[in-house]
Design a protein that fits this description.
The chain is 72% helix and 0% strand. With 341 residues, the protein is mainly alpha-helical. It has one domain.
Length: 341
């Protein structure tokens, strides 16, 4: 999945303020409310896509093939609309350096984050991997926002980072038991199984920052989605035929491709929703909606896929949710800024 979220771990300062979002509405709603609705839809979509991709693990679908086919859905749906815009000579893609940066980040998302996360589902499971992604994603968002956007990290956000880092310790302990899912009996495989989702979280945070700096009134959201997913198709597609035997690929015509199609469709809906949310609002409290993703993924992992239900996992998930909620509580400066959104 291509997780993405607003850089809610940072607060605006008087001297280094982030650009305020344009004065616009979404479906008749104020930007803050519309952005929150988009993020809620995104959370549901990404959770559904995660469940589909986890199911492909049980179907023994190769990770490269699974991710590549999931991304094809977006390319086939969004591509024709962008061609129509180009035919009408309307703005489509960002130009110059912005496009180059987006392509570079998209490569990292596909080859590092999406592919690595799919592999980790087989090692530590859905219930461990998704909370780990979010823990690092929020932490990295705060750090990147401070370094790249000059935004201040509040005391509340710093405390939330501490909570999320502690949650990773509990999730690492839970990964020891979950590692048995994929037959991982050695310590290093389990460490890698929890480390890869952490790396994915950092990459997704960079994608979030890139979207915030790329999406403008002249650049349609669909173009950002298309670039990110088409990079996956153009890289992972050929790599699939190189890495996996052709007979193995064509043996999955029935159930496997249904799950890939479902994952791609839900991922497209979620990506469009979160990208619109990023465009509409800079409200910090929007991130609290992402806590539901962690809870739903953990429940799905334990109930649907029968992943180990350990005390370490429950504690780790609860700490992760607590950290996200703490990130989502705006301080006085944020409330004052949101009144003008």
């Amino acid at each position: 999945m291509t997780f993405c979220l607003y850089n809610g771990g940072v607060n605006r300062s008087a001297d280094h303020a982030s650009p305020a979002p344009p004065d616009r509405t979404f479906l008749g709603l104020r930007p803050v409310v519309g952005g929150s609705v988009c993020c809620a839809v995104s959370a549901l979509g990404y959770t559904g896509a995660s469940i589909c991709m986890r199911q492909l693990v049980d179907l023994n679908c190769h990770p490269i093939w699974a991710v590549a086919n999931k991304e094809v859905v977006t390319v086939l749906v969004v591509g024709p609309w962008l061609l129509w815009r180009m035919f009408r000579r309307l703005p489509v893609f960002p130009s110059g350096r912005a496009l180059a940066v987006l392509i570079g980040v998209s490569l990292a998302v596909q080859l590092g984050a999406n592919l690595g996360l799919q592999w980790s589902f087989d090692v530590v499971g859905l219930a461990v991997a998704v909370p780990a992604v979010f823990g690092i994603m929020l932490t990295a968002s705060a750090v990147l926002g401070w370094v790249l956007l000059g935004e201040r990290v509040s005391r509340r956000s710093a405390a939330a980072i501490g909570v999320l880092l502690v949650s990773l310790i509990f999730l690492g302990l839970a990964a020891t038991a979950a590692g048995k899912l994929g037959g991982a009996t050695d310590r290093w495989t389990v460490i890698l199984g929890i480390g890869v989702p952490c790396l994915a979280g950092a990459i997704y945070a960079m994608l979030s920052i890139t979207i915030r700096r790329t999406v403008t009134g002249a650049t349609p959201i669909a173009a950002i989605v298309f670039v990110t997913t088409s990079v996956g198709v153009l890289t992972l597609g050929p790599l699939s035929f190189y890495s996996v035997e052709t007979d193995v690929l064509w043996k999955m015509w029935s159930e496997g491709y249904v799950w890939m199609l479902a994952a791609g469709t839900l991922n497209l809906i979620a990506f469009l929703a979160i990208t619109k949310g990023l465009e509409l609002t800079t409200a910090v409290h929007v991130n609290v909606l992402n806590a539901s993703q962690v809870a739903m993924a953990a429940i799905a992992g334990m109930l649907i896929f029968h992943e180990p239900r350990t005390g370490w996992l429950i504690i780790g998930v609860c700490w992760t949710i607590g950290g996200i909620v703490l990130f989502g509580q705006p301080e006085h400066d944020d409330r004052e800024a949101d009144r003008h959104v």
